[in-house]
Structure formats: structure tokens, C-alpha cells
Amino acid sequence: xxxxxxxxxxxxxxxxxxxxxxxxxxxxxxxxxxxxxxxxxxxxxxxxxxxxxxxxxxxxxxxxxxxxxxxxxxxxxxxxxxxxxxxxxxxxxxxxxxxxxxxxxxxxxxxxxxxxxxxxxxxxxxxxxxxxxxxxxxxxxxxxxxxxxxxxxxxxxxxxxxxxxxxxxxxxxxxxxxxxxxxxxxxxxxxxxxxxxxxxxxxxxxxxxxxxxxxxxxxxxxxxxxxxxxxxxxxxxxxxxxxxxxxxxxxxxxxxxxxxxxxxxxxxxxxxxxxxxxxxxxxxxxxxxxxxxxxxxxxxxxxxxxxxxxxxxxxxxxxx
Amino acid sequence: xxxxxxxxxxxxxxxxxxxxxxxxxxxxxxxxxxxxxxxxxxxxxxxxxxxxxxxxxxxxxxxxxxxxxxxxxxxxxxxxxxxxxxxxxxxxxxxxxxxxxxxxxxxxxxxxxxxxxxxxxxxxxxxxxxxxxxxxxxxxxxxxxxxxxxxxxxxxxxxxxxxxxxxxxxxxxxxxxxxxxxxxxxxxxxxxxxxxxxxxxxxxxxxxxxxxxxxxxxxxxxxxxxxxxxxxxxxxxxxxxxxxxxxxxxxxxxxxxxxxxxxxxxxxxxxxxxxxxxxxxxxxxxxxxxxxxxxxxxxxxxxxxxxxxxxxxxxxxxxx
Lengths: 320, 320
Description:
- The structure is a homodimer.
- Chain A has 2 domains: 7-269, TIM Barrel (Alpha-Beta Barrel), CATH 3.20.20.70; 277-317, no CATH class.
- Chain A contains 12 helices and 8 strands.
- The first copy, chain A, is globular.
- In chain A, strand 5, helix 5 and strand 6 form a beta-alpha-beta unit.
- By secondary structure, chain A is an alpha/beta fold.
- An 8-stranded parallel β-barrel of chain A has the order 1-2-3-4-5-6-7-8, surrounded by 4 helices.
- In chain A, helix 2 packs across helix 3 (68-75), helix 6 packs across helix 7 (208-218) and helix 10 (277-284) packs parallel to helix 12 (308-317).
- The A-B interface holds A 177-179, 203, 205-211, 213-214, 217, 228, 238, 240-241, 244-245, 253-254, 257-258, 260-262, 265, 274-275, 277, 280-281, 283-284, 306-309, 312-313 and B 177-179, 203, 205-211, 213-214, 217, 228, 238, 240-241, 244-245, 253-254, 257-258, 260-262, 265, 274-275, 277, 280-281, 283-284, 306-309, 312-313.
């Protein structure tokens, strides 16, 4: 048995891009795109469509901007087999004019990531995208730090003022437990009568996959995942685990195994993602991974790098 | 809020010993023992009390046998702060005569690991241990492969014929999902009216910690975990995550952070545990990790080592 409404979204290149300033080679992006299409994944997100006014093209790679030309090069000659193409806009780092009309674009879906405080910017962006002909989602980041009354108000606005397909619970800090997933899915469903619920989970506490399952059981139908968990800090729900769990026979795990072997694992030379003690400490204390990433990036000779007790004590002393 | 009945068991040296033939240095074992005691963990298992007739003392380290002398060296001069000392006997690799009377031993608890088919051997061992004055548990391995009618019969025997404190659900293959944990905890509780339920979870699918939480929610009170997840194949539920989750103020996570930094992380040079694609494939297909461990231990130049598709296809073709 499976639920046909479920949509699996691969966001390897988009979320992984937070670990390398979106500097993936064209070859790597083409391989990921082909594998994900061959595996029958519903949606693939190839990066951000953020503004060049907000990010330097010298410091950031192609996949922070996802120009139409880059996306065409990444996808041409590859049979999508029905997999839709998504890009993400950050509500505070992208502008309406960054989008072309849908008929001039290879993009199908625009996902807008936002903090609760920027919800009006997000609503403006999704309404613009809908008007241009795209399907849309809103992804509410750092939900574990949102105040209930502000989150409730934002959800009511989304329900009334937008035509998005789905609204996401984004556990940016990897801080949620399964009981929290239940709480947030129930809350989102209560406020959003006409939208699907999505879940985007991080792995600071090795709960990315488990919390995605918890979301499925509670009714979420949009599920984000990345190849081998590649993503910010401790990474994401691993796509190969999610496909192994879902029973829809349209999925084929084997192209994912291939691309993990030939394209993702070699990236471990340059990018360090996955479970580690600093990320774990951030997760259990419900903190942005920035402090832990700074520790992880310290020179190996710096004795603070392995002084996890000091890191823990510092974080607990400075509650934010 | 927390449940005072919960007992946390550190089995780092015992389960980790499956990755290095139990060859830990005395210094490492003393550091682990001290940290776990300082952290307020209820029980620490320092290895197997298996028979020298079944394992060669030339091939296996001290912690496969846990002679009284070794255990005294590992613990002397360290304040246990109430942490109890456990050893494990394998029902098919240990004998009753391997135990001294409790009053001549530093051991408090004997845990007997068994497959369902060896349940009579396990019952003989725990009854012997109880008679000698120890507390006991039975840990049912590979539960995900057990046939229901055989498992039910074994549980009924345990209920009627033993005085163990707890009976464990051991997910040796890392194959269970949260709904399976619910199923097994309910089954164990139905048959075992007078024993606590334990959970020992593996991480092939990154669900070791999540399934331990699922067990807690369903009523399991004996919880196995290891430092940084060190254990067979993909490893175990990480102790530091479990302590972060449990709210009992008697626990202190900081000694665990210290020992992970100074003793466990350096072991990564010699032992490779944790999530990887071969283990994941074994987990989703409900297989013993042996085949995946063979692949992981292949020479790096062997092209089969990274041919995950072939490994997956081989395992799916040979259903066992």
C-alpha cells in the first residue's frame, strides 16, 4: 500500500549548495538530474533563483542563481520522465523580477523559503510566480524557533492570500522529535484547509528520515530529501532511505545508488556533511547550525575544534 | 517530565567489539567506564563473557571474555556512582560455568543474547546466572526475521520459566520502522506481564535513535545505546543523543562529549562504523550485515566495492 498523493522532492543541489556556495560542476548537476528522473522522483530542485544583487557571482556558483541558460544546459538531452523542475527563492534574497514568464522558462515550480517574519515578502513572491504561470510552495524555515501566535497568523495569511500547492515545515535546526512533527503537522493542517503539507527535515539528531516518516504518518504529502543526505550541516533526510521506505512501484532506487557512488561520494573530499558532535549539540539545543559549522571549519590544530564540552557550555550559557 | 523506570545501558565496548574482535586497550575501556559512570548512565556493559572454548584468545581481545581480572583492572579506582556493571553471554557461545558466584565477581548483570531458535539455551544461562546471584536480561537478536509463532512461544517460555528483569527487542539488521517497533513492543508486553521491555536498535537506516524513542513512547524502559553510535556495521543508537532526549536531571551529557572527543573519535582510524550505502541496502532488505561488512572491507581498488547497484541486485535476487 502507498499513498498516491505523496510527492518526493530531491533538493540535493539546492540544499547541498549551502555547503559549497552552490559551486557544483555542470557534469555533477546533469548526473544528479538524470538519476533522479530515472528513479521516478516527482520533483527535482536544482538550486536557488536568488538575486545577483544579493549574492556575488564571483563568490557563488551557477546554482545560486539558476539562470535559464544554466538550467537548459543541465537538463537538455535528458528525458525527465515526468519529473518536474523546481527552483527556490529566498523571500529576503530574491525579487519578483528574477522570474521569467513560465512559457519562457524550463522551470515548473517555484518554492519560496521564508522565516515567519518575512511572510509578506514570501506571499508577494509566490503570488508573482503563480501569476507568471508556475506552481508554488512556501517553506517556513526555522519553524522550531517560531512563536506560536506569529506562526498561526502567518499560516492564516497563507491560507487566505495565496494559491500555493503546499506549505512546508522546515526543521532547519534538526531540533524536532516525532512528537513535535505531530504537533506541527496538526497545526499546519488546522490552518491550511486547501493546501498540502510538506516536511523538510535536517539530521543534526539523526532524525531527518525518521521525522519525514512521522510527517507521512500524520498526513504530510510533500517530502524533501537529498542524495546520501547531502545538505547543510548534518544534512537532510537521505533520498535513498525515503525511496526504500515508500512502496510506490513507480520508484526505482538503483539509479540513486549509481549516482551516489559515482558523483556524491567523491564530493566528501571537499564537503563535510553528516552527523557530528557539534551539529548534534546544536540540534539538541535548538540552534542555527552556524556556530557548529564554524567549529567544524576550524583548523585541525586548533584545540577548540574537539573541545565539545566547551562548545556545549558556551551554547547553553548564551540562550537565544 | 521523565519516566523514572527508564534504565539507560551503555554497550559501547560490547557492541563495538564486534568491529575489532573486542580488542580495545585497557586505557580506552577505563575512560569509557569513567565517562559513563560520571554521566549517570544506569548500566555499562564492558564486553562478552563468552567461552574460551568458542573463541581463540589469540584472535580476540580481553573484552570477548571479560575475565574478572580484566574487569577489576578496568574499574578499580573509579567511582561507579551507582552505575551497574554488565557482561553479555551469547546463548550459543557461552556456558554456565563461565560465571563465578556473584559475591566473587564485580559483575552485577548478565545479559544473554539469543536467537529465537536457541531460547532454551538462553533460559538455562539466565537461570544459572540468577541462581548465582546476578540480575539478568534476555536479548532476542534478529527479531525482524523471527516467525511470529516461534517468537510468541519463546516469549511465553521466558515469562513462565525465568526471572529476568527485562527482555529486549534487538533489531540486529536495522530493518525496523517505528510502526514495527510499536508492533514488537505491544507483542512483548502482551506475553511478558512481569518483565520490563528493552530495545536495542541498529542504524542501517539511520533509525537507531528514532526507533529507541518509538520504543520509549510505547513503553520500553531498558534502552541500549553506544558512544557516537560505535557498534556493529552502521552502529547503534548514539548514547549522547539519547541522553540529550531524556529529561531526567540525573544525567550529565558533558563527560560523554569528552570521551567521544578523546577516546572514540580517534578509533575512526581503525574502525569504520556508521551509515553507508551497503549497510543501508542490508537494512531496507532486512538482511544480516555480514554481506555489507564484506563489501565495506574490500580493497579500495576492487571495483565491486562501489558497485552498489550490483550489491543491491545480488541481495534482492537471493532472498533469504
